[in-house]
Design a protein that fits this description.
Length: 398
């Protein structure tokens, strides 16, 4: 994992302790409280303190090259463009379904209108066939007075039925016109959305081209193997310090165990966060660096959906050197899951996620040459083998 970073370690241990003292100065809340207002205040305080930590990390980063700064900037813009494109595509899908429903309704209304017109035409012909003279004859029948009453009732019924059908036709015509107008509006919306989709796709491609240029420049800066080894070690140290800071911060407001299954009971039952192929395995050597992988890499097409492996809350969601767009979920009892090199993040710090919920899309952020999800599991800050916790293989997922 190579790349640039906006989240560097604290320069001195005293500085870290001072920051945590400030962050943890907020009074602790009762986690088991049933008061909704207290829980809302608890969540707001947690988000604020996590965001403060995230901002402090960003502003106290190590000195880095302009290329690394540019990489963070470009990949963050790619994330924004990807989210916007996905939102447009969802709206496009909804509008397309709405258009299909409207067209189906239009066809049904047209058929119903035809039937009503045919019915009133049959009644008109029947009335004509009976003739006005027959009606007058019935009304003037002096020999059968009861027949006159029945005739009046019958003619009144026919008249009212005919008027009701005329009113029904008028209503059907109005509904058909309203549906037609809705179809026209939806068609205009679809045209606008397709135009916005094309523009968003172009912007995304432009940002990706900029990223390729920046990655190539960083590659030229890391010409020697010793430079790359130094960077990898710095990236690992930076992640370890970040996780240590998050553990101390989250310990003040632990997860409510009554509302979720303890993570330790899920060993061997978890689903992989994304379908794909394992291209780096836990504990294997990282090329010629002498270092070992602390997690696994799942190679899959760019844009593949990344899902949370279990319920938890987002502890970190930002760009970090060596890991690109990184999302960390706290599952309680010291367990965390890490999702790196994403194309876009769809959750923010402090948000709760459910098992299987989409949290990101897979990418190559952090300066990677090909798309892939870097996935780690940690307990009390120590890496644990995801293969022992997840069932099956990533490739078996659809």
């Amino acid at each position: 994992m190579s790349g640039a970073c906006s989240h560097a370690p604290y320069r001195r241990r005293p500085a870290l302790l001072l920051l945590l003292c400030v962050l943890l100065a907020v009074p602790a809340f009762s986690v088991g409280a049933d008061d909704p207002a207290a829980k809302a205040a608890e969540l707001a305080a947690l988000r604020e303190r996590m965001q403060t930590l995230q901002n402090r990390l960003r502003h106290n980063q190590d000195k880095k090259s302009r290329a690394e700064q540019k990489l963070r900037e470009v990949e963050t813009k790619i994330s924004t463009a990807s989210r916007e494109l996905l939102r447009i595509e969802h709206r496009l899908e909804n509008s397309t379904r709405q258009l299909a429903d409207l067209q189906t309704r239009q066809q049904e209304q047209t058929r119903a209108l035809r039937q009503q017109r045919r019915q009133i035409a049959r009644e008109a012909r029947a009335s004509y066939a009976m003739g006005r003279q027959q009606q007058v004859k019935l009304l003037l029948n002096q020999e059968q007075p009861a027949a006159v009453g029945r005739a009046l009732t019958y003619f009144g019924y026919l008249s009212r039925a005919r008027m009701a059908r005329v009113d029904s036709i008028h209503t059907a015509l109005a509904e058909l016109q309203a549906t037609t107008a809705s179809i026209q509006d939806t068609n205009r919306e679809l045209m606008e959305l397709r135009s916005r989709q094309l523009l968003a796709s172009r912007r995304l491609q432009e940002k990706k081209q900029q990223r390729e240029q920046v990655v190539a420049k960083i590659g030229r800066e890391l010409e020697s193997q010793s430079d790359e080894l130094h960077r990898l070690r710095q990236d690992e140290k930076r992640l370890q310090k970040l996780l240590a800071s998050l553990r101390e911060l989250l310990a003040d407001i632990p997860l409510d165990a009554s509302h979720h299954q303890p993570f330790r009971t899920l060993k061997g039952k978890l689903h992989w966060p994304a379908p794909g192929r394992l291209t780096s395995r836990f504990g294997s050597r990282r090329g010629n660096s002498g270092l070992t992988w602390q997690g696994v890499t799942i190679t899959a097409p760019e844009g593949t959906r990344v899902r949370a492996i279990a319920q938890g809350r987002v502890a970190f969601a930002d760009w970090m050197r060596g890991f690109g767009l990184l999302l960390i979920v706290d599952h309680g009892d010291g367990y965390m899951s890490l999702y790196g090199h994403n194309q876009a993040l769809y959750k923010e710090v402090g948000e709760w996620v459910d098992t299987g919920e989409m949290v990101a899309t897979l990418g190559a952020s952090g300066g990677q040459n090909r798309p892939g999800l870097y996935f780690e599991l940690r307990h009390q800050g120590r890496p644990i083998n995801p293969v022992r916790w997840c069932s099956g293989r990533p490739a078996s997922l659809s």
